[in-house]
Amino acid sequence: MNFMGDQVGKIRFSFSKKSRDSIERAISYINHNAPDIVTIAKTPKDYKIYYRKWFILISTIVCAPVGIFLLWKSPLQRKFFQCSLTAFAIAVIACNLFFLYPKTLDTHNLPIEETFNTLPSSEDNNVETEPSRTSFSDTLTAGHYTVGVDIPSGTYKFFAKSGLGNLMSQSLAVNEILDSGTTAGNIISSATTDELSNILLLDGDILTITGTLEVSAGCDNAGELTPRDQSLNEVELEYGIYTAGDDFPAGTYDLVWIEGTGNVQTDPYDINLGINEIFGEKLGNEGSYTDTLNQSLYDEDGENYFDFSEEYNEINEVTFITGFKNVTFSEGDLLKINDIKIKLIPSS
User: Fold this and answer.
1) How distant, in Å, are the alpha carbons of 106, 131, 196, 222 from that of 199?
2) Which residues have C-beta within 8 Å of that of residue 57, sequence separation ≥ 6?
């Protein structure tokens, strides 16, 4: 039950089902003795389906940020339930970020010998001439970056410009969670950092960035780049499961969001080559998804009675991406697309 007043705003009063009869008698007494007080009666059936508890629970399981957003918009949920479910969802997200890419990975299947063979040896000091090296700097977003192809070899400094995600390399030269100061990142601040330095990346290594993280990367001793040798065409795909080699040519692509909100995943999933990310339009921008969520933010007079811009920003910080670079598909690999349309652009 919500009490509205010009000076106090909206005050919410919650009560149990067993008190319903008493509350209804009190409302009838008020209506009879104070006819100037306007009462508007609504039952849960009068509200949209996405306000219901079962819908919010399913939304939280499928996509926690969207579920939590609906949870706090719903006029049907009690404060205790809102706080409890929010705390649970944040804890699950934090655990996933911390454990999905652990600090120590299983290195039994990594090409150890090849990695060590590329390290500088003492014999290199006797070489009279070295190839010229220049500085390099760029902003890197979600994707895989092969050293010597997408980014040059060198000793790097990294700084989190925006978002939250993992920064790691196949050789284990780096494996950290970087955070630019997001709300979710503050919860797991002991496991995150915003800056790294002295990270040596050698030709053939693969640097991976996940989530919404945008990283400023730079080095002063950059090596040379060799472009990919592949001849592919752009492909547009929507909801479904597609096989590389049958539905589109195998190769390396940049995945770009077109419309919708959903998950994109490769099967089998290779942490250094594949993808498992949520794509979607940023909340707060003009678009069908935002418009749908905004419908219930207005009262009967058409006035916005609560500003959700801060909640939009917090969700955008850790949830939706619109692109992922350099996903490599071998013959027979599956690409699973849920509820969205994307474009595959050949990586250069």
Assistant:
1) 20, 21, 7, 13
2) 67, 85
Question: What sign results for the dihedral spanned by CA atoms 184, 186, 187, 188?
Answer: positive
What is the C-alpha to C-alpha distance for residues 243 and 240, in angstroms, rounded to an integer? 10
Distance CA(199)–CA(110), nearest Å, equals 19
Sign of CA dihedral 163, 169, 170, 173: negative
- What's the whole-number average pLDDT of the chain? 78
End-to-end CA distance of the chain: 59
Angle at 284 between CA 278 and CA 287, to 5 degrees: 75
Beta bridge partners of 262: 279
Phi, psi of 329 (to 5 degrees): -110, 125
Report the percentage of the chain scoring pLDDT > 70: 59
| pTM greater than the 0.85 cutoff | no
Kindly write down the DSSP assignment for every residue of 61-89, as one continuous string: HH-HHHHHHHHHH-TTS-HHHHHHHHHHH
**What's the rounded Cα separation, in Å, for the pair 184 and 132?**
43
Can you say whether the dihedral through the CA atoms of 182, 185, 190, 191 is positive or negative?
Answer: negative
Give pLDDT tens digits for 130-178.
555 689 999 999 999 999 999 999 999 999 999 989 999 999 999 999 9
| 258: amino acid identity, one letter | I
| Cα–Cα dist 304/294, whole Å | 9
CATH fold, domain 133-222, is Jelly Rolls (2.60.120)
41-85 confidence digits (pLDDT tens): 655 555 566 666 666 766 666 666 666 776 667 766 666 666 666
Return the bridge partners of 294, or none.
none
Map residue 96 onto helix, strand or coil. helix
d(CA 215, CA 209): 8
Among 55, 272, 233, residue whose Cα is nearest residue 150:
272
- Chain length of the chain: 348
Extents of the domains making up the chain: 2-100, 133-222, 235-346
What does the alpha-carbon distance between residue 348 and residue 345 come to, in Å, rounded to a whole number? 9
Residue indicated by tokens 């652009």: 345
